[in-house]
Amino acid sequence: MKGGAPALAVGVAETLPAVSSRLVITGRQGPSDCGPVRVKRGDRVHAGQVLFGPEPGDETAGSVPVHSPVSGKVVDVQPALGPDGDMAPAVTVEADDLGERVEPLARPWEPWQPGQWPVEELRRFLRMAGVDGAPCPVQGSLYERLERGLGGGTLVVNAVGCEPGLPSDMLEAATYPTATLLGAAALGRAAGAGRVLLAVHRGDPADEALTGALAEQPQLGTGPVPVEIVRLADVDWFWVPVLLAREALAVAGLRRRGSRSGEARPMMVESAATAVAAGEALVEGWPVTERLVTISARGRLRAVRVPIGTPVASLLQGHDDGQTGATPVLVLVGGPLQGAALPDLQLPVTKSVSAITAMPPAMHFRPEAACVRCGRCVEACPAGLLPLYIARAAAAGQMAEARALGARDCLECGACTVLCPSYRPLLQWIRLAKYGRARRPGQGGGL
């Protein structure tokens, strides 16, 4: 990765057990609804058991269940803070060492034969396995996108990264290349895609790992929904999903516009993490109960696989200053461009937490100054918006005006905030106008 990314040994992601005896699993794991709580205080649960989900037998409901990552006892059922800073229903499980698990999910078809997967059954299986996409500011929840379908369009799987220097999606693909390929094919089938493009950074570990895995599973590249690896060179702002997808289409020699009707060809972008979750569920029949989290602290990257519900503080152990014992002054969910500050390090990891960034104590935060109208935020905006005016309206409480100026079209890349010479939190104000305090990316509704 360019931009002086921290050093990392790829392919050796650590798998951490439940480092806390108590895991807090929230009913808000991603952009999709999780359904009502299915357990009560005092219940004994097995690993893989549904904690939040639809009524038994009501598998047509739109919610995405949340499963217990461990066996143990339910010691609390009450709302708790999630990593987004909002209160959500939560179940606290006291883990034990028995390791009791539920039976694997039924898979009525051969996982390695994509052409045999019935589309509706595949969507249902992925949903009941708890597969959910990352919060996306422009596309809505995963199953809304799958239901809309692509009608022969293109699915682009991001195996590059979410931000420069923070290659979480690259790590997912490099660590689990076979699951990435299989999950990408499954998502393409479920969305009605004509082809699937796996976008990688040329020559990085994900490129090598996926190339080798595709050679071992050639049917995934030649089946009804062929999976193709697309190698990208350094591209400015390539981490914005829409721009990454457009670059991938260009490199693959595809055009967004149909040759006959002139209408835009449908396009969908998913993260490598979503593909991995889908692929692992298909092969193992096991629901999503863990998350690979990339930790950036003190110039080092570390990838760990942890049970959902693990407190963020436990992931930062060993990242303090060995001489002074200094702790980070600011911890972000995500990276410096798009991440949000954690109000409490005891907040739990959810399925949508891909990265944790710890800012060092030596970092100096400059006070916000008045806008000098230099125009840098306008020049940098990939959506062609006027961030300074949207942020000014939001700061004044004029949310309707901010939305009229295009707040809902913001791609949330963070470029405006990073480049602002006055250190104004432009992205944060735009997000406030776009979602409101009670909303999260991917959810519907107004302020």
Automatic annotation (TrEMBL):
InterPro entries xref list: 4Fe4S_Fe-S-bd, 4Fe4S_Fe_S_CS, Ion_transpt_RnfC/RsxC, Nuo51_FMN-bd_sf, RnfC_N
Entry keyword Iron: yes
SUPFAM superfamilies listed in its UniProt record: alpha-helical ferredoxin, Nqo1 FMN-binding domain-like
Signal peptide region: none
Keyword field: Iron, Iron-sulfur, Metal-binding
Coiled coil: none
Domain 4Fe-4S ferredoxin-type: 361-391
Protein name stated in the entry: 4Fe-4S dicluster domain-containing protein
Species this chain originates from: Geochorda subterranea
